[in-house]
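Shape is hard to put into words, and the shape of a protein is harder than most. The fold becomes a row of whole numbers, each drawn from a learned catalogue of backbone shapes. The outcome of that step, for a single protein, is printed below.
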Amino acid sequence: MRSAALLVLVASISVLGVAGCAEEDDYLPPIARRDSGIPAGADAAIDAASAPSGLPCDVALVLSTYCASCHGGTPAGGATVALTTREQLLAISLTRPGMTHLEVAISQMRGATMPPAPAARVPDADIAVLEAWQAAGAPEGSCELPNDPFAGPDTCTSGRRWTGGNHESPLMRPGGTCIQCHTDMREGPRLTIAGTVYASGREVDDCNGLASSGGDPVVVEVTDSTGAVFTLSPNAAGNFFREEPVSMPITALVRYQGRERRMLTPVTSGDCNGCHTLRGTMMAPGRIVVP
């Protein structure tokens, strides 16, 4: 395949605003690392500007996972209020007089109206975290949230780069939009899923990612609309791909060292690096990153 690779990559799993990327109302929420102590279902990455403050860790992580993409420091996606501090959560809602924003949020989560479709529903265990905090009087707290893999400088963690130009190889152009390039160039295999897994969210183009090898492999797991699950193994350049048909939309997760990072919203394209670029597009925070 001769491919003019573009940028790409990381920590989540989505597709570029090229062919079949998420629509504006079907964006991919940030994806986060799952470390010990993170409640079930907490998989969204934490943007420093939207990170909750003055809250216990378990509460902060639930909010970061399911609310921060719209109710962050600067409300987006149609949201009108920020939900990043204890004071904001306990303020009285203007649209639901007599109820705090916290009470409204819990009610909407229980009613499955928030986050809005097609985002994943909030698990009962995570809603219970907010309910328990409310029942305890919503005490103040503090928490050092997991490191943000998208906050660092541009880098090439592996120290190795693709130097073969458009020479056909499964290792070519890590971070590039494989499906788009194969289609535009009319060369190379017809791929249904393709992407690159990295160690951080700011990896430059053509930088090799993480290989799935040894006793602690990196695993990419894709679930299609029928519930079928496909396991993909990144090669020596961190590239993973599939040629067999896949029923869209899909979701995906990355497993590494007993942790996992997963998508919360289904997407309709398998060209993962299209959205997971150096800076991220279509609401992806950056590259596809291991947890």
About this structure: The radius of gyration is 19 Å. The beta strands are 193-198, 219-223, 229-232, 239-242, 251-256, 259-262, 288-289. The longest strand covers residues 193-198.
